[in-house]
Specification:
This protein is mainly alpha-helical and 151 residues long. The chain is 64% helix and 8% strand. Strand 1 and strand 2 form a beta hairpin. It starts with a helix and ends with a helix.
């Protein structure tokens, strides 16, 4: 990993992410990899497919790929014709409609993964990241925004 980071002049964390995404494309997303190799989609689109298929069963991944990259994928705009953010919304919507587990089941499992991360930055600043249930995150955002406006 350090060698990849050095060769690409990126941090080890970014190199690890890049290697993980590349591995996922090469081992479980053949249609997305083919679309990337032919130039039908860009790297951001490929990363989006990797992100949105994480945690899906192999059958669900195949169904998602067939929908977006199969012979009938021309319904509407092809993935490469959509900006990455729009493509992510389409993928996520499809994933939510076809996920084998209910949202409630997945939420219950994800609650165990909640966490707070602190990362110091330069100039005496730092980043604070929270991974928590959406309603709680929205409440924190709204309260922080109200306090900031009050200042």
């Amino acid at each position: 990993m350090a060698q990849v980071a050095c060769a690409l002049t990126i941090g080890e964390r970014a190199a690890a992410a890049l290697l993980g995404e590349s591995h996922a494309l090469a081992t479980s997303l053949p249609a997305a990899l083919d679309a990337l190799q032919t130039g039908a989609i860009g790297w951001q689109h490929a990363r989006t497919v990797v992100d949105e298929t994480a945690g899906l069963t192999p059958a669900a991944v195949s169904a998602l790929e067939a929908h977006f990259f199969g012979p009938d994928a021309g319904r509407g705009a092809a993935p490469g014709e959509l900006v990455p953010a729009r493509f992510r919304r389409k993928l996520r919507a499809w994933r939510e409609r076809h996920h084998p587990e209910s949202l409630e089941e997945r939420h219950a499992k994800s609650v165990a993964d909640r966490r707070v991360e602190f990362s110091p930055d330069r100039d005496g600043m730092a980043w604070l990241s929270l991974y928590l249930p959406g309603d709680t995150a929205l409440a924190v955002w709204n309260k922080s925004t109200a306090l900031a406006r009050g200042l």
